[in-house]
Amino acid sequence: MSAPTRKPAGSLAGAHGSETPAPRHGLPRAADVALAAIGLVLASPLLALAAVAIKVTSRGPVIYRQRRVGRGGEEFELWKLRTMREGADPVGVGTAVVRGDPRVTAVGRVLRRFSLDELPNLVNVIRGEMAIVGPRATLPAQVALYTPRQRRRLELKPGVTGWAQIHGGVEIPWEERIELDVWYAEHRSLALDLRIIALTPVVMLTGRGRAAPDPYAGASPDSPLRRAAEHEAASEAARSAERESRGEH
Length: 249
Description:
Layout: H1 29-57, E1 63-69, E2 75-81, H2 106-113, H3 121-126, E3 131-133, H4 140-143, E4 159-161, H5 174-187, H6 190-206, H7 224-245
Parallel strand pairs: 3-4
Antiparallel strand pairs: 1-2
């Protein structure tokens, strides 16, 4: 497997007046790799079944790859099982997936319900781009909207699971999720990581935190994320209207 190409989405230097600070110690890298490898082996039959179901029921690739922002503001290619119809992936800050979202396929709804679509994230852990526990990997356009305090979540590698995920995930407002990640970055410890790992199966089984309350992820009306998403939606609507007026499909 070839190494991914990385590019910076904005260095942390200058965000706090210094280079990225040394992170607090949590789960060791060796444990990350071991857990990811074991997880991939145990999940391989399920991944194979999911791959067949995705391929048979919808057009497009099985694995969905998307640029996300990792530690220090560096971008990497995140791997997931594809849950949306082809061409429905977000552009810019995007809009959150809501319950009954028409972009999500029938198979995708099942995979998302139990967070199975994120199993390929374990490949990112083995490659060193992610950790088992950490802030959720986010889109470059969203990172561009961060305040200096919010950028503190970039001090750590993004995680397959994390403090925000077990406290509501996308069901809670965007700013609140970021604040939970910042709190984790400030209080990270081995004990906290083990606690998050222990609680993650409960979240997976209940399906909690997998659907946002609205397309703007619960962001307040004056939130920069909401304003950017609304601007993108208006621009896309204008482009669609223009294409229709020209008779394009």
